[in-house]
Design brief:
Rossmann fold, alpha+beta, ATP hydrolysis activity, 5 strands, five-stranded mixed sheet, 2 domains, nucleotide-binding
């Protein structure tokens, strides 16, 4: 985030730089989902880490890009806020045809994806189609052997047309 503008200005900054029109109805919807309505006039230094992360999520979603790249997008959020953000991202995929490419170590976050690629030591070890939370936990349990090293989960929520 840019340190001097407010949360609202940070969210709108990419659209303003690109001289693109701002859809305030969409802005209100995005801000409502990430629960920043009462923090829009605050500067980053006045926001918690989780609130700053929600500003970053809102900024990425606001532009309605065809692909959103997200690295641990809800890492600083509580489970309820995380769930709401992932439901909103799922809606972006279903209703607007956006694709979300997400890197996460959180099996609950990965369970929102249409496809999950599980990486270990830089190689794909599993390719899961519409996995449940339990499916992902089972993969983690299989790879719980300390000799195998950490498991990384890359989840890509694909366009609805691919289903």
């Amino acid at each position: 985030m840019v340190p001097t503008p407010t949360a609202k200005e940070n969210i709108l900054l990419p659209l303003q730089i690109a001289h693109r029109p701002i859809d305030m109805d969409w802005f209100d919807k995005v801000v409502s989902v990430v629960k920043l309505q009462n923090r829009l006039d605050h500067r980053p230094s006045q926001l918690s880490g989780g609130q700053q992360q929600r500003v970053a999520c809102a900024r990425a979603i606001m532009e309605r890009p065809s692909v959103i790249f997200a690295d641990e997008p809800t890492g600083n959020l509580d489970s309820r806020s995380s769930h709401e953000v992932f439901e909103f991202l799922r809606m972006c995929v279903r209703e607007y045809g956006q694709t979300i490419v997400m890197v996460t170590h959180d099996p609950r976050a990965a369970s929102f994806a249409d496809r999950v690629l599980v990486l270990s030591d830089g190689s794909i070890v599993q390719d899961l189609d519409h996995p449940s939370y339990d499916d992902i936990l089972a993969v983690f349990a299989q790879d719980d052997d300390p000799q195998n090293g950490p498991v990384e989960v890359e989840s890509a929520t694909a366009r609805s047309a691919e289903q």
